[in-house]
Amino acid sequence: MNKENLAISISGMSKWYDDFKVLTDIDLSVTFGERIVICGPSGSGKSTLIRCLNHLEEHQKGSIVVDGIELYPGMKNPELVRRTVGMVFQSFNLFPHLTILENCILPQRRALKRSKEQAREVAMKFLERVKIPEQADKYPRQLSGGQQQRVAIARALCMEPKIMLFDEPTSALDPEMVSEVLDTMIELALSGITMLCVTHEMGFARKVADRVIFMDTGQIIESNAPETFFSQPKHPRAKEFLGQIL
Amino acid sequence: MFDFRFYEIWRSQEFVQALIDGALTSFWLSSIGGCLGFCLGLMLAISQEKSVFWGIRYTARSYIELIRNTPFIVQLFFVAFGLPLLMDYQWSFYASALLAITLNFSAYFAEIVRSGIDSIDKGQIEASKALCLTKRETLMDIVLPQALVKVYPSLVSQFIFLFLTTGLVSEISIEDLTWAGRFISDRNFRDFEVFIVLTVMYMALAWLFKLLLQLLKRYAFPWAEAEI
What is the fold of B29-170? Predict the structure, then answer.
């Protein structure tokens, strides 16, 4: 397949923290519109992998091409790739000193140079999409965790990315708030955006994922359609993991 | 029992006027010095934390260390007597006092602001990166506002403390509140009463500063006051 048509193309990628190898020979291709769930035990490198995709982390070996842009260590203009890649964090990382609306407006104004009115319009559109337009003038700490995470999703969507990365978006939430965030993500997945999601929510994986990737000790050891992955995992480590989590 | 004679102060129009003028001088010197010192301190903190040039970082750090580890009186005399000799130019003592206060305050403020910048969660910076904000935008729009709110109480208490040390400017004949006290006690020899009055007036000024800074906070950081 032509590399240019791939959303993400990773080949032979490795990453070290000093002497410690966190990712080993990762190969992964993602087409546009594909929805991928990445799971695996903690410390397996899932988060590090997706953080490499918007250059929050640098890889040392191999190649990563995201939306036709080659990433390399020490690159001068990572904002090129960040413009097409949105990210949602485990701890929301909303800006506490800005209202919900301002959280969504500021990056558009700064990075996309949109006018105030235009940015506001886009922000409200996405806040409505995540179903919290009525909270627009509140501050993040006045919202519940689930609401905050939905704002974080809206904030990322305001930049109109082609690819969305989710780094354990529901892990910091109270159990009863998980479903509202997952519903938002399912709605988003069905809209056709390219998604890579690190999560342990297997229900979500089953419902929307085109592919489930299982990682252990910095390697991708299994990559399969969710039905296959859940019903007949090949690798013993994956079996063990599923046995514990399901 | 000591016989307090406060009327030895009140009965003289000249003494009362000296106290009022002195209090005003102390107030304005600290206010203006505080504002200028804060601006300079902010720049020092940013240079020390964020500058890409090691020369600038090192200079800022050295300046902060130099000021924080030398007595104010030495800095004051250097600015008032040393600098004019070096530069062959004579300022008024008021200008010297203001400059010395500004330089002195700035180093203490810089250290506090620096600790605030350090304390901002890394996630905030990662989110800024992921949203394509530049380093400058991240600092100005995201990190600094949060850092300043966090350290605001420390800045206020440091300012109050520094304000109380400004009495030393009376050493270069600035007619501030401390100078007024000495002026009066030299004439009526009621040192005890005079310094009790000074104590009360310094305290009142400190409270006034605290109140003004509280109002300023409400105005500058409305989000920090928002109810949950």
Answer: MetI-like fold (1.10.3720)
